[in-house]
Amino acid sequence: MSIRIGNSCVNCENLGPNDVCKVHGVKVSNSYTCDSFDMKAALKNDPNCVTCARYNESDCANPSKAAPGMLCSHWAPQNAQA
Ligand code: SF4
Ligand code: SF4
Question: Which of 9, 11, 53, 74 is most buried by its number of CB atoms within 10 A?
Fold first, then answer.
């Protein structure tokens, strides 16, 4: 199983005000995730290099091809916590 840095509560649609999870009713943080994770629509609807945390960074998987509108399987949302 691959480890994904984007699947944390901070990128989850179910994260409510004051960092309280709407599904579990407890306070969570960007270090947590669960099987109910649901990526925020704003993130999953626009995955391309410009919205990728790795764009122009040393951990970009395809630095010679990365460009606006391009996408690869290593895409990660910009507010992901490593
Ligand atoms: S549903 Fe899971 S991943 Fe989403 S905020 Fe709650 S605990 Fe975090
Ligand atoms: S090539 Fe992949 S890792 Fe690099 S910026 Fe684009 S989506 Fe991200």
Answer: 11
Mutate which of 14, 35, 39, 79 to test ligand 1's pocket (most atoms within 8 Å of Cβ)?
Answer: 14
Tens-place pLDDT, residues 11-33: 899 999 999 999 999 999 888 99
Q: Is the pTM of this model over 0.90?
A: no
Whether 70 lines ligand 2, by a CB cut-off of 6 Å, is: yes
Please give the angle made by the CA atoms of 12, 79 and 68, to the nearest 5 degrees: 110
pLDDT at 3 over 80: no
Residues in the chain: 82
Q: How far is the CA of 59 from the centre of ligand 2 (A)?
A: 9
Residues linked to residue 27 through DSSP beta bridges, in sequence order: 20
